[in-house]
Amino acid sequence: MDGVCALVTGARVGLGLAAARALGARGARVLLGGRDAGRLEPVLALLRAEGLDASSFAADVTVPAELDAAFAAAAAAGDVPRILVNNVGVRDRRGVDTLHTAAFAALLNADLVAAYDVTRRFLAAHGEEPGGAIVTISSIAAVRGRAGDVGYAAAKAGLEGMARSLASELGPRGYRVNAVAPGSVATESNADLMVDSRFSEVVRTRTALQRWGQPEEIAAAVAFLASPEASYITGHTLVVDGGLSTLF
Known about the structure:
248 residues, alpha/beta, Rossmann fold, seven-stranded parallel sheet, 8 helices, oxidoreductase, oxidoreductase activity, SDR family NAD(P)-dependent oxidoreductase, Sc_DH/Rdtase_CS
């Protein structure tokens, strides 16, 4: 991946940061996506201290004008991403009785519609020289039911459907489009569940490997799908869940 520019949205913490680090370690120049440029600075300093080539891509992915400005700034700096990792994910753990329609729509906008919007700008940036790789972060929630998580599950199912359709549409233009579906991963967004003894017991007894996944394990799958090693893989969702979806 030497010299290839990669945009990772939601890259300040968690899976996004791990993916950015994995891509950077493989030689990519990484654009770190995040809403606040100031909060991205310490992360940039950390990655640069590790010898990685990283720059800021400050934009709220739900605000088209901010996306336009961020893509324009990247282009002005000579950065045209050929790898896109759609990682932004908002979660609202409520069920149908309490997740009102406006909140459901807002979640879909942040997790699904925004990924589509970023993807369209990513493609437009290539002009007459198409080609690249798109990896979207899904979840086993896309195919497994869980009470009280209806909006997130709907968004992730939509992302996987979008990835398959984009793979079909963009393949002739030299793009590969895939998704990674993590299971239970030890990230900041799951901090409350990690200290919940009941849920931790569920992870232990319902996951074949009997443990939480680590962000780096998901990032390795992302980097593989984005790399030339996966040159004949498109339209695929790679499940990385420690065997959670294999048990019944």
